[in-house]
Amino acid sequence: MRDGIRLRGKAQLGASAKVTASEILAENTLALHLTKPADFSHRPGQWLRLTLPTTGESRILSIVSAPHEPVLTLATRISDSTFKRALMKLSAGAELGITQASGHFTLQEDVSRPAVFIAGGIGITPFMSMIRTAAKTASVQKIILFYANRTASSAAFLSELQDLANTNPSFDLVATLTAPKDDTTAGTGETGKVDHEMLMRHLPDLAAPIYYCVGPTAMVRATRQTLLAAGICEADMVFETFTGY
Known about the structure:
The protein has 5 helices and 12 strands. By secondary structure, the chain is of the alpha/beta class.
């Protein structure tokens, strides 16, 4: 499970990393910045297992940082679980166990086909590494991100994504709020769930892209049905589900 995701792949035993900093990215979202072991590598979209040495508890978390970044960054929704409470209390210098990166939720190699990312809430995390990598390498592949959150204040990385969309001609952002507040709708562009009509407004050809979707179970199921109803074949869809813990 990745923040509750059902995953394929087996994580290999790794090493330890120290917390360099932690921060609240958005409402109920925590980022942990860790030292990166010399032998650590990952592909954008992968995950690792994080272990608290004091309790032995471990969870799988998405890697937000891109492979070229010197620091390893993870992000997760804050909850009242014992594991999340322990993460919130970590200070700089705390040592954590990490595995090598694993997982198959990675970008296709055919850059001639657009990639449509559909993220619900904390489902944005695996996409951040992909988007940062595409910007760093000046990838010519067209990426369109549909990013759904209840409110702007709960949308992690929204400012960074808006900046990337403004500076990278190959990246488009469609941010939508499902429960907007009157004072937080500016700059998001859309309201409501990502549905067939929203996709039609922003995609000139629904059959051209490969679709990647990560989010809560109900959202992922609804997106799959939307894509199937639009005539998208199963081979052009990649899903992972966050159920939380």
